[in-house]
Automatic annotation (TrEMBL):
GO biological process terms on file: glycerol catabolic process
Keywords: ATP-binding, Glycerol metabolism, Kinase, Nucleotide-binding, Transferase
Enzyme Commission number(s) from the entry: 2.7.1.30
Domain of life of the native organism: Eukaryota
InterPro entries: ATPase_NBD, Carb_kinase_FGGY_CS, FGGY_C, FGGY_N
All residue ranges annotated as the Carbohydrate kinase FGGY C-terminal domain in the record: 276-497
Pathway(s) of this molecule: Polyol metabolism; glycerol degradation via glycerol kinase pathway; sn-glycerol 3-phosphate from glycerol: step 1/1
Domain Carbohydrate kinase FGGY N-terminal: 21-262
Gene responsible for this protein: LOC117135767
Protein name according to UniProt: glycerol kinase
Family of this protein: Belongs to the FGGY kinase family.
Length: 596
């Protein structure tokens, strides 16, 4: 769709990416989506206490500038005309929140990361006030009450950082997620910076009404967040402003989008029913629901996929957010000193392969009392269940009070067994989200929905792990060979703004080669292990409920032995209600027709 006035790669688009671990700037060819030049820098994560995660906003801005300048120079070295760069876009990890001074441009505090849970005490107070209804604001925001969204982070900063309270009182405070922070600085900062955000990032603040697509005064009142500090909400695809300084001076900023919706678009999952899983330190599973906005009754997020123009229709998603995925493996490596590298640890590879083919069939036939040489590693591994709820569980439970547990330890347990249980936990959490997708779409035509999951992210590069996840969830996994799907999604969005790319063109021209991983386990094997996982999650949710501990354990055991227990327990109550109603009818009848 690009014309002859550009070089051999057609029009070029740059994308600034800020994830939870890196800053990047990639320069794409709109002709074939090839990354022609890029540069990345690692982000410094600041951890003051367990469960806290901060970033230095000034460092993020400085790193972004360096990435832009270096990628630009690399393009020149390759003898590609940088004047072919017609626009740039911004993609970022949603939920990470920044407050800064309007007059000085300086951050009022470090940026608080999306997974930071320091606002849990505020969350507990809110839940107490709404009778522990985690879905209290869902009908407006599409989100449950959780510390991972920006509203509670703003509230915490207002309550604990005097500079923030003062700046708000003096009308000198601005709020934004990282897209807003970069946009404001790129467009001039203090002098003339544009204070805007896009739908996907605004949605993750828990302050936007998902129906009106504007800030909701009642949500702001509920969270006690002033409306005047919030940026203007815009679509994903429009001109947000122009770069004021640097090698890209005068270049339009033509797209902004949150990382996970951008990955959905970058993996070319543009039709309703397609879903994508991004596995990094955390894990996000998104189902494209097209233009149908579905209110989840099963612990999922009603989200925004994209809106490609101010007057265009909005496309929606159902989303499951999993807080601990790759970070669980990092915890094992850094805190417990366990070698978790699959490629360099043959024992880990062997333990992962216990799910595959004959090994999985053998292990499914071994009971817990048959831990011997005949059953081997597969049976020993099957005893370990790890629920990594370090600071609570997100989708589909949304329980801030859950805590991680490891069950099934014996004197024969090895570090490889625990490593596999950690990877297994990610698979089971993905499986729970996929099952919630099905329950939230009961009227969808299942014949048109294949059990296929598009897989991406840093951890998706390891084929052993991808096969392992496929075996756990029972889905075919497709791993497109795409460099930075989120970056590609924003490139497509910026291309739509500049009228050099369309969705139809992208699907036709940008579809990459794809690796396919088919499940090799039996349904019975998966159900057996998921049953154990579900049991462990129940204990995880009630780990500190000492008053009812014995009763809970007894009830769990009874339910395992008698699946019809809830039905039978309801019979006496049903008899009571039925007989009571009959007595009322009889009394009314005798009142009208007294016995003579």
């Amino acid at each position: 769709m690009s014309n002859g006035r550009y070089g051999r790669f057609g029009a070029l688009i740059g994308v600034a990416c800020v994830s939870s671990t890196h800053c990047r700037f990639l320069i794409y060819s709109t002709k074939n989506a090839e990354v022609l030049a890029y540069h990345e820098l690692k982000l410094r994560q600041i951890v003051h206490q367990a469960g806290w995660m901060e970033y230095d906003p000034s460092e993020i801005w400085k790193n972004t500038q360096e990435c832009i300048e270096t990628a630009y120079k690399n393009l020149v070295i390759l003898e590609i005309n940088p004047r072919d760069i017609i626009a740039i876009g911004i993609v970022n990890q949603r939920g990470t929140s920044v407050l800064w001074n309007l007059e000085t441009g300086q951050p009022l505090h470090n940026a608080i990361g999306w997974s930071d849970c320091r606002s849990t005490p505020i969350l507990k107070t809110l839940l107490h006030n709404v009778r522990h209804n985690v879905d209290y604001v869902r009908y407006r925001s599409g989100l449950p009450l959780s510390s991972c969204f920006s509203a509670l982070k703003i509230r915490w900063l207002m309550d604990h950082v005097p500079a923030v309270a003062t700046a708000i009182e003096e009308n000198k405070c601005l709020f934004g997620t990282l897209d807003s922070w970069l946009l404001w600085n790129l467009t001039g900062g203090v002098e003339m910076g544009v204070h805007s955000t896009d739908l996907t990032n605004a949605h993750y603040t828990s302050l936007m009404n998902v129906s009106t697509e504007q800030w909701d005064p009642k949500l702001c009142q509920f969270f006690r967040v002033p409306l005047n500090i919030l940026p203007r909400i815009r679509s994903n695809s429009e001109i947000f402003g122009y770069v004021l300084e640097g090698p890209l001076h005068g270049t339009p900023i033509a797209a902004m989008m949150g990382e996970q919706p951008a990955s959905l678009l970058g993996q070319l999952c543009v039709k309703a029913g397609q879903n994508v899983c991004t596995l990094d330190d955390s894990c996000f599973v998104l189902l494209n629901t097209g233009r149908e906005k579905l209110d989840s009754a099963n612990g999922l997020i009603t989200g925004i996929a994209h809106k490609l123009g101010e007057k265009e229709a909005t496309n929606y998603t159902l989303e499951g957010a999993i807080s601990n995925a790759g970070s669980t493996v990092t915890w094992l490596r850094d805190k417990l000193q366990i070698n978790t590298e699959i490629n360099s640890n043959d024992n880990v590879v062997e333990s992962l392969n216990t799910f595959i083919g004959e090994s999985s069939m053998i292990s499914s036939s071994c009971s817990s009392s048959m831990l011997n040489a005949e059953c081997g590693l597969a049976a020993k591994r099957s005893e370990i269940t790890f629920v990594p709820a370090f600071h609570g569980l997100y989708a589909p439970y949304w329980r801030h009070d859950a805590r991680g547990i490891i069950l099934g330890l014996t004197s024969q347990t090895t570090s490889e067994n625990i490593t596999q249980a950690a990877y297994e936990a990610t698979g089971f959490q993905i499986f729970e989200v996929l099952q919630a997708f099905k329950r939230d779409t009961p009227n969808w035509d299942r014949s048109c929905m294949q059990p296929v999951l598009t897989f991406g992210g840093d951890y998706a590069e390891n084929s052993h792990l991808v096969q392992f996840i496929a075996d756990i969830i029972g889905y075919m996994l497709e791993r497109p060979q795409t460099t930075s799907p989120a970056g590609l999604g924003v490139m497509i969005t910026a291309g739509v703004t500049m009228k050099v790319v369309s969705l139809e063109h992208a699907v036709k021209m940008y579809t990459p080669p794809t690796d396919v991983f088919s499940p090799t386990t039996t349904k019975n094997r998966r159900e057996l292990l998921y049953k154990r996982w579900d049991y462990a999650v129940k204990k995880c949710l009630h780990w500190n409920n000492y008053e009812t501990y014995e009763a809970d354990i007894e009830l769990f055991a009874q339910r395992e032995l008698d699946p019809n227990l809830p039905v039978r327990r309801s019979v006496p109550g049903s008899i009571f209600l039925t007989t009571s109603f009959a007595m009322i009818l009889l009394a009314n009848y005798l009142k009208i027709n007294p016995l003579k």
